[in-house]
Amino acid sequence: MKNQDFTTSILVEQSPKEAFNAIINPRGWWSEEIEGDTDKLNAEWTYQYGDVHRCKMKITELIPEKKVVWHVTDNYFNFTEDKKEWIDTKIVFEISRTGKQTQIQFTHLGLVPEYECYDICDNAWTGYIKNSLRDFISTGKGKPNKGDQISSHQKRK
């Protein structure tokens, strides 16, 4: 059976070290509304977007220049019937060299098309990874959520 977890990837000119350092700083590319350490193994941190979405992450793998894994230990969406979608899923960043470029393979293990939030999450993750994270790695400036303002790349088309 085909893997149906959400996945996307990007290529950047920067080194695996620069990509890793950007990934472990999600305030620079996902949201400024993150509390807790995002750069230490076993650290727990929270993300909140108003009353729409909040989640708690635990960093379960942190291999410099190679891999970052966040385990979603708690989650809430106000727009789904099942308020706990994402719980016990994993968000995985795999970093590798491809020629002179660095590839970041992003996979949200457990985020599958059967989830009520899938289309919204697909659109949001695609924007965050392909636009905001890529820009953050390449230029040092991402497009994270700021307070209660949704970034333009997250809005549904």
Summarize this structure as a short list of keywords or feature phrases:
alpha+beta; 157 residues; Alpha-D-Glucose-1,6-Bisphosphate, Chain A, domain 4; seven-stranded antiparallel β-sheet; disordered C terminus; single chain
Description:
With 157 residues, the chain is of the alpha+beta class. The protein has a single domain (14-140), classed as Alpha-D-Glucose-1,6-Bisphosphate, Chain A, domain 4 (2-Layer Sandwich). The chain has two helices and seven strands. The protein has a seven-stranded antiparallel sheet with strand order 1-7-6-5-4-3-2. Strand 3 and strand 4 (53-63) form a beta hairpin. It is globular and about 45 Å long. It starts with 5 loop residues before the first strand and ends in an 18-residue tail after the last helix. The relative contact order is 0.22.
Topology:
Elements: E1 6-12, H1 16-23, E2 34-35, E3 44-49, E4 53-63, E5 67-77, E6 90-98, E7 101-109, H2 118-139
Antiparallel strand pairs: 1-7, 2-3, 3-4, 4-5, 5-6, 6-7
**Whole-number tally of structural domains:** 1
* H and E string: EHEEEEEEH
- Bin the strand percentage: 35-45%
Separation of termini? Answer: 30 Å
Instruction: Outline the low-pLDDT stretches.
Output: 150-157
Total count of strands: 7
Largest sheet: 7 strands, antiparallel
Shape: globular
> Which structural class is indicated by helix and strand composition?
alpha+beta
Sheet with most strands: strand arrangement: 1-7-6-5-4-3-2
The name of the CATH architecture is 2-Layer Sandwich
> Helical region count?
2
According to CATH, the fold-level topology is Alpha-D-Glucose-1,6-Bisphosphate, Chain A, domain 4
CATH homologous superfamily heading: START domain
The helix content, as a percent range, equals 10-25%
Mean pLDDT: 92
